Fold this protein.
Amino acid sequence: MRTSRVICFAVSVIAAFAAACADAPTLPSATITSLTITGTPPVVGATAQYSASVVLASTGEVQNVTSLATWAVANTSTATVSKAGVVTGVAAGSTTLTVTYSGTTVSQQLTIP
């Protein structure tokens, strides 16, 4: 009887964990045709949310991959970027903002006024 309860408990824990993981973001399995960055540069001392989107080759569907992408800036003396795509203006000047997703990389000039 005790063994049955332990097994039932273990199965319940595994089922709950699996259900929680099912809601976690995943990479689309389809090939992407484009990756784009959108956002407006912040002024010094402010932040701005940037986003990254892909177009799936098989359906043409646009998916927001902001939280799944890797973000970087070339010059952290001018701006920084978080893992979530939030850009912070550090000093006036220009740098390159780069986003990578599923093997595709796109860069754009970022000018902090």
Q: What stands out?
A: The chain is about 20% helix and 40% strand. The two ends are 71 Å apart (CA to CA). Residues 14 and 97 are 41 Å apart (CA to CA).
